[in-house]
Amino acid sequence: MSARKSIAVLVSGGVDSAVVVHQLAQDKSLDLHLFYIRIGMDNGEGDCSAEEDIEMCSLIARRYGLPLEVVPLHQEYWDNVMAYALRTVREGLTPNPDIMCNSMIKFGYFEERVGREFDLTATGHYATTIIDAEGRKWLGTAVDPVKDQTDFLARISRRQLEHLIFPLGAMPKSDVRRIAAEAKLPNALRRDSQGICFLGKINYNDFIRRHLGERPGPIVEIETGRKLGEHRGFWFHTIGQRKGLGLSGGPWFVVRKDVDENVIYVSRGYDTEKQYGKTLHLAEMHFITEDPWGTAADSPEGVRLTFKNRHSPEFLPGTIRRLPDARGEYVIESDVKVQGIAPGQFAAVYDPEHRVCYGSGIISGGAISL
Known about the structure:
six-stranded antiparallel beta barrel; five-stranded parallel β-sheet; 3 domains; Elongation Factor Tu (Ef-tu), domain 3; alpha/beta; SH3 type barrels
């Protein structure tokens, strides 16, 4: 008789990870062990409603007779993800803490200390995996394009991917809700979490203000140079932002930030060309499994791809080429206008049919042309 395959299941208290447990529990050849990663600080910062979440996870564990452990990674989260977010914001860039949390915490520290003791780690992310003819494992997109989360996974490593399974990737969210209702799971009707994971219920601006303070400066209309108002610090704003500017006669969009002079530049109108661009310069390109393009990306015409420059259901078509220098930077030329190209954000790159996520690059300031 063959040994049962051991699976570490990351649970959050939400319906997605609960349905993962339900689905995997039907397979009696699997030995499941549930883990909740607690990343909130002891002072309450970034608590992510942990007590309520843990209680829900405990209900799921008892329902299926499975062990549940809480893995505290408070300091690791602060030293890596929170510190990265604050450093990036201070530099005038737009961070993505959720991407860093996946690569450094969930599939970094957790895997190194706990997950590696199991045959596989399962999560509730909406993604899939694809095995090619050579036996290589690639990160695949989810069936549900609205819920697809491959852009949040676009900085994980090949080694991390090798150990992961995504049981929800082949089903739409509606099926997940239906399964939860039919199984009478205690969190079947629980709302999906919104916003930035590491803040939980904490207001983003309050968090930034607490750590970076305020630095008032002018808000200027970029076409005319006219001062329209004041901001409380460039770090409260990001390229493409419309709400929270406190300006009348809009809509106004943030189109540029001058960090040295502490100036926020805006442009008026939904159709203002200043909030769009077609060129994205990418630094620190990271490939999950391997570079799919090789020297083809060195050609002037580049190679075809699709990409995301923010979390959305849209995969934008374009070409990508590697710049002829030693830094290994890439440039994406989009076929369509891209709204809100924000330096510091990650652009996830895919094959032309957006079936495979190859990895991601960090959007650099070179992407902005005004």
